[in-house]
DNA sequence: TTTGGCCCGTAATCTCACAC
DNA sequence: GTGTGAGATTACGGGCCAAA
């Protein structure tokens, strides 16, 4: 899952944060004031003694006005020419995983920044449109393929449609839409891709740039922003829990 | 300014008893 | 034997505070 250009070890969240802070010339105190995260916590994160939960990462990216994906990738080398031959191998064990009461999602290939497609494997547990809430819409297009189970796709201008294993759907994302586990199906697993002409699609999907940008119906964290933060089973980009010293 | 010890809260996991 | 719920245990994020 490493870019062909990148032969060194995958950077940790701490290294990425430290680099971000160094580039901006901030002290821990300044970064703490900007992010709302205590100095000692930032210090521990930078030294890989602690990792941040999803809600803290979201808070960090929002307050520092950076893309969520910035926290998952190395900074560009200074003066580096635009990348035209990027590659990323998606591995489930390296995916950025977010689990909520309704959904499990695994964001793949997260080390690639400013990509125009967001691949995500999703376990869908929402069973009714009432449970899901209002149909969502955003710029771009998306494609969803059912890997397991059966899903019910609600769209703004069409009748709901059932998709069984092996079936898929492609829609314009600016049309209101929602994905549910079909009746009689406890949960379904899909693989989907959201695309957009905009480079900060990831941030857009995560709802980082204002309330006027609706989140994707693909169950992204932003879709469940109303869920209690502590109810989320969070995992750091590194995807590991560290041993206590 | 930064680090690390300590403590608290919470979620996940484990164990066990109980019902079917 | 299997499923389920309660309680105990474990692991870890988060924050306070003192020391380097």
UniProtKB/TrEMBL annotation:
Give start-end positions of Basic and acidic residues composition bias.
Answer: 235-245
- Which Gene3D superfamilies does the entry mention? Jelly Rolls, lambda repressor-like DNA-binding domains
The UniProt keyword set, sorted, is: DNA-binding
InterPro entries this protein is in? Answer: Cro/C1-type_HTH (IPR001387), Cupin_2 (IPR013096), Lambda_DNA-bd_dom_sf (IPR010982), RmlC-like_jellyroll (IPR014710), RmlC_Cupin_sf (IPR011051), TransReg_Diox_bact_type (IPR050807)
Q: A single GO CC term, please?
A: cytosol
Q: Where is the HTH cro/C1-type domain?
A: 17-71
Which protein are we looking at?
Transcriptional regulator
Which GO molecular function entries does the Swiss-Prot or TrEMBL record give? DNA binding; DNA-binding transcription factor activity
Disordered, as annotated region: 212-245
Q: Which Pfam families match?
A: Cupin_2, HTH_3
């Amino acid at each position: 899952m490493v870019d062909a250009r990148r032969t060194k070890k995958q950077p940790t969240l701490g290294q990425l944060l430290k680099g971000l802070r160094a580039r901006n010339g901030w002290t821990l105190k300044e970064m703490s004031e900007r992010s709302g995260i205590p100095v000692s916590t930032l210090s521990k994160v930078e030294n890989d003694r602690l990792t941040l939960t999803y809600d803290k990462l979201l808070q960090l990216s929002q307050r520092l006005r950076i893309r969520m994906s910035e926290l998952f990738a190395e900074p560009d080398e200074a003066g580096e020419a635009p990348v035209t031959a990027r590659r990323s191998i998606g591995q489930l064990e390296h995916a950025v995983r977010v689990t909520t009461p309704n959904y499990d999602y695994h964001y793949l290939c997260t080390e690639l920044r400013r990509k125009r497609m967001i691949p995500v494997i999703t376990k869908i547990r929402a069973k009714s449109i009432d449970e899901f809430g209002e149909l969502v819409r955003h710029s771009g297009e998306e494609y969803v393929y059912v890997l397991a189970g059966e899903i019910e796709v609600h769209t703004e201008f069409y009748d709901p449609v059932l998709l069984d294993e092996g079936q898929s759907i492609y829609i314009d994302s600016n049309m209101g839409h929602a994905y549910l586990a079909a009746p009689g199906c406890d949960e379904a697993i899909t693989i989907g891709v959201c695309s957009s002409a905009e480079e900060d699609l990831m941030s857009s999907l995560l709802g980082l740039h204002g309330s006027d940008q609706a989140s994707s119906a693909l169950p992204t964290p932003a879709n469940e922003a109303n869920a209690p933060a502590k109810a989320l089973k969070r995992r750091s980009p590194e995807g590991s829990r560290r041993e206590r010293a």
